[in-house]
Amino acid sequence: MRRRTVSAGSLEEILEATAPLARAAEQPAETAGAAGAPAPAAPAAARRQQVLRDEFEFELPRGYVDDEGVVHRHGAMRLATARDELRPQIDLRVKENPAYLSVVLLSQVITRLGPITDVHAGIVERMYATDVAFLQDFYRRVNSEGHTRAAVTCPHCDGGFEVDLSGGRLGES
């Protein structure tokens, strides 16, 4: 089972959002207003809760080829938890070969690869090296920097711009 983490924002936002409900619960039934009247709406700022983006889509450079020969390029990766980063440390395969750590870690945070939702170490093992390198960089960007954009420079005009590493067709960002 995969867990998703959603942030409700700062403590002040949570208190603002729940304050009208707490005040309504503290009032006796007689002073709460007309019988059955709805409680006043929460302030607009409290209703706009910040939601943490915890899953990022990507497109592999080459693609994973499954047993039937179908190529899967589109997928999704979730943010890593502390448990995700600690679990490979006790994995026997990682203890025998420390280079296997990235295979185990990627298999835990990739939530989908085409129609495949059960992404395990065996799938990551059979990916092309360019795709694994892409996923390692994607993991680092998502978990360290919080986004999938990269600053690049055009080799022809030396103009700088950003590209989104999560995929899309050439020329799109």
Compact overview of the structure:
This protein is an alpha+beta fold and 173 residues long.
Describe the structure.
Helices cover 35% and strands 19% of the residues. It contains seven helices and five strands.
Helix count?
A: 7
Rounded radius of gyration (Å): 23 Å
Helix/strand structural class: alpha+beta
Helical fraction equals 25-40%
Compile the SSE list and pairings.
Elements: H1 11-26, H2 44-47, E1 55-65, E2 71-78, H3 82-86, H4 92-96, H5 101-109, E3 110-113, H6 121-125, H7 129-145, E4 149-153, E5 160-164
Antiparallel strand pairs: 1-2, 2-3, 4-5
Q: Could you name the key traits of this structure?
A:
alpha+beta; 19% strand; globular; 173 residues; two-stranded antiparallel ribbon; three-stranded antiparallel sheet
